[in-house]
Design brief:
Oligomer: single chain
Mean pLDDT: 83
Number of domains: 2
Radius of gyration: 25 Å
Number of helices: 16
Largest sheet: none
Helix content: over 70%
Low-confidence stretches: none
CATH architecture of the largest domain: Orthogonal Bundle
Strand content: under 5%
Distance between the termini: 11 Å
CATH topology of the largest domain: MetI-like fold
CATH superfamily of the largest domain: MetI-like
Number of strands: 0
Length: 328
């Protein structure tokens, strides 16, 4: 198992390097530092002197890959590629345009994002899987038709509707919880109840339909017919055998959600004023702080790769065939 994990980590290195190079090309070759300066200055007629001054203030006045003004190793290190791109591989994110340390901001803002995303993930998985199992249990009947119809209706409604309606009804009309804001500690609960509830409700439609499809596909397999032939009840077949064998596609779907646990929900955090990484990214895009945006893109890639490795490890726990294959 250890050798397998090390192998996956080694295979992830070229992916990180490739993403790093593509990100550098997008931010510094397609969208040049001169373009960044013009967007940041926000003026119709920006002089070259002002552009050069802005680039010098923010460290964008260096050559891309090779600095002919320096000699030796400095000709390679005193470049944009080294200072703005290669340092990301060591998780040195540098400073934002406002002079704040990006690593410290990430360390502070990840906790509100986790406080929002983890309950949404766990509660959402529990509700969606339970509802999908009930629909699969009563498949072909009126409950199945009713459940699928409700799911389609919920999928058709925009997530912004749930946010705006929840804030208006629960926050403004009933005044049960604050509409926006955030405080640390136990006081965070009253600020998180509404966004967590909206996040769970907004994902019921798509999640339940997807899990229902997985369970119905498993119900037509040979091991299910064998279990029924042995006289096992439909409940035991569904909750003991089908659910266990459906864990692999379920785990695969959870991988997509793992980066959002740390990076936060862009829309949810912005609407509810939660100082997480999602609102941090939105604010960086609005203020055109490209250092923060590049750091968040790279961090999202790292988290996604970690999620893939964790999924492969979890496969070995739920499927003995994977363990046998990894040992051979």
């Amino acid at each position: 198992m250890l050798a397998y994990i090390i192998k996956r980590l080694i295979n992830a290195i070229p992916i990180l390097i490739g993403v790093n190079i593509i990100t550098f090309a997008l931010f510094f070759m397609v969208n040049t530092p001169d373009d960044m300066a013009r967007m940041h200055l926000g003026q119709k007629h920006v002089t070259q002197v002002a552009i050069n001054r802005w680039k010098q203030q923010h460290g964008y006045d260096k050559p891309l890959f090779y600095n002919a003004k320096d000699s030796g190793i400095k000709s390679l290190t005193n470049t944009l590629f080294f200072t703005k791109s290669l340092e990301l591989l060591t998780f040195h994110f540098g400073k934002s345009d406002q002079g704040r340390d990006i690593s410290q901001d990430i360390a502070q803002r990840m906790w509100p994002s986790l406080a929002l995303a983890i309950p949404v993930l766990l509660i959402g998985l529990t509700i969606n899987i339970s509802f999908a199992l009930l629909i699969a249990l009563f498949r072909g009947g009126y409950f199945d038709l009713f459940g699928v119809t409700v799911c389609i209706i919920m999928m058709s409604i925009s997530g912004l509707f749930y946010i705006i309606a929840g804030q208006h009804v629960v926050g403004k009309m009933l005044r049960l919880v604050p509409v926006s804001g955030y405080h640390g500690g136990l006081d965070a609960i009253k600020f998180l109840i509404l966004p967590v509830a909206i996040g769970v409700i907004g994902g019921i439609g798509a999640g339940t339909r997807w899990y229902r499809t997985i369970f119905l596909e498993e119900l037509h397999k040979d091991y299910v017919r064998t279990a029924r032939a042995k006289g096992l009840s439909e409940l035991i077949v569904l909750f003991k055998h089908v659910l266990k064998n459906a864990l692999i596609p379920i785990l695969t779907g959870v991988v997509v959600i793992i980066p959002t646990l740390f990076l936060g929900s862009l829309v949810m955090e912005s609407f509810f004023g939660i100082p997480g990484l999602g609102s941090y990214t939105i604010d960086a895009i609005q203020s055109q702080d490209f250092n923060i945006v590049r750091a968040m893109v790279y961090l999202g890639t790292v988290l996604y790769i970690i999620g893939l490795i964790m999924t492969d490890i979890s496969y070995t726990l739920v499927d003995p065939r994977v363990r046998i294959g990894s040992n051979t």
